[in-house]
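Uu.00g034430.m01.CDS01
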Amino acid sequence: MAGPEEAAYSHGHHSSVVSSHARRTAKDSAAFLLPHLQAHFTILDIGCGPGTITADLAELVPEGKVTGVDFSESVLDQAHALTQDRGITNCVFETLDANGLPYADDMFDVVFCHQVLQHVGDPIGILKEMQRVAKPGGIVAAREADYKSFAWYPEPEGLEQWGEFYQKTARACGGEPNAGRYVRSWARGAGFVDANLQSSWSSWFYIGDSARNWGESWTDRALKSDFARNVLEHSVGTQQDLENISRAWKQWATEEGAFIAIPSGELLYTVPKPPT
């Protein structure tokens, strides 16, 4: 999800990116939120991408409704097709940007974003909007990766360079690659009350098939996605560097026992009710 004009979505929507995002589920990406859901809830999923998490949430609120929003029409076409294939009828998708949400105040029981705040120029502003459209007593929830905290093994030289390039490229695009460590601070900057704010961390851990999927994805992303274009456009590295990074991910994906841990910071905020 792109943010204000000074920020751009650094990953883009190449098939290697979207297919990786489509492997995400509510269970592995929103476990901190799931115990708080009720069957009748209305949910807004901001930056929903290909809709796999959105669809899972819809199945968990069968008497409610889920609205997934993203700025990319093409990725929302995929999300809509997914819900049709799964026979999900309480889920809709809308094309829009998260800045200045076109919804009334106090409209949703849950307002959720996953791996969105790291890509926008004004994460505090997005959180303010999320709180505005959440009902009093409702929930604002977010989960953001922290790229500097990633750990992987084996450690071919090109992956260290990938990490350095990712940091520089994300910031050149106006984002914050280590958003996980800042998400609570951003929430406080948005006026969230400490007493109602819960913080946590969780991690994806990829090994075996999931590690191979990740490595194969980045083998292509290093050369074909907007990450590659941004590396070159912002003079972060050269085409040769990108080829070296791609080869490193390809090699890593074939190594027996290869793994990667991807930590994310989480926040869950209960919107205060007005005094009676």
